[in-house]
Each structure stands twice: as C-alpha cells, then as structure tokens.
Amino acid sequence: MQQPKYFVHSSSVIDENVEIGEGTAIWHFCHISAGARIGKNCNIGQNVFIGKNVNIGDGVKIQNNVSVYEGVVVEQDVFIGPSVVFTNVLTPRAFINRKGNYQQTLLKKGVSIGANATIVCGTTIGNYALVGAGSVLTKNVGDFELWYGNPATKQGQVDEEGNVV
C-alpha cells in the first residue's frame, strides 16, 4: 500500500470522498467533511473545520480555530488568520432549515485575512486584497484593496506582497 504524500495528524477526522493534495499538512483536531478538496502544499492549522464540498486551492494557509463552511470558495495562495469566522446564511434560525440558502463567499488568489475577522457571506474578496485583524466585512473588496474596521471599510491599497502603497 502506497503512503499518502500529505500529512494528517492522528487526532483529525477525514470523511470519505475527500481529496488532499501532495505536500499538504493537516494538524491536530481538524475535521475535513465529505466532498471537500484541499490543494497541494496547504497548511491546515489546529482545530480547523472544512465543510462539505468546500474547495481549497493550492498553497493556502488556514491558521488555528477556523471553520470554512459550505459555500466558501478559497482560491490559491490565500492566508486565513487564526479564529477567522465565515458565515453562509444571512438570517439563520435554529428552527428553520436554510441549507438551500447558502450564499457563496469567494476569496480570490493571494487574499490575506487577519486574525478574528468576520466575513459575512455573499462577499467576494479580490486578488491579493487584505482584510485587517478584527474586521467585520459585509461588502465586496476589490483587487489589491486594504479593508479594516467594524464595519470594515476601504482604507487603502496593498501590493502583491501585502505592503501598503
């Protein structure tokens, strides 16, 4: 039997029908749900949940304590800081099943999201954009834009390396 070309810590749960790319590391206490696809050379930190049918691109880094719910699309080379929160329903109720109402959130190539940011569903974050730590993002972000605050607003521009320009 051939050994996988990725690492999964023994405390993590990987459901059936999951694709994990070569060179990826999945650390302690993670759960990767059925139908998820994780690209090559990704680093999935401790206590991360990847929801059903979520697609994670190559070179993505997801820090500790993040839940990437169904409806979130993560392109390549994205950084998601510790304890970032994603939503997938705008008006949730415990007593109403709204699984058919998931709204897509798209993180394009090279995006960085700082620790403890909340990303409300239905938003697109453009290529190489940066969302600051602790922000609450409720609007679309353009390519190379810097957004932060509560609610997050555009504060400037960044280059591909994340330097404010």
From TrEMBL:
Keywords: Transferase. The keyword Transit peptide does not apply. One of its GO terms (molecular function) is transferase activity. InterPro entries: GMPPB_C, Hexapep, Trans_hexapeptide_repeat, Trimer_LpxA-like_sf. It holds the Pfam family Hexapep. Residues 30-85 form the Mannose-1-phosphate guanyltransferase C-terminal domain. Belongs to the transferase hexapeptide repeat family. PANTHER family: ACETYLTRANSFERASE, ACYL-[ACYL-CARRIER-PROTEIN]--UDP-N-ACETYLGLUCOSAMINE O-ACYLTRANSFERASE. This is Hexapeptide transferase. It comes from Pelobium manganitolerans. The lineage of its organism: Bacteria, Pseudomonadati, Bacteroidota, Sphingobacteriia, Sphingobacteriales.
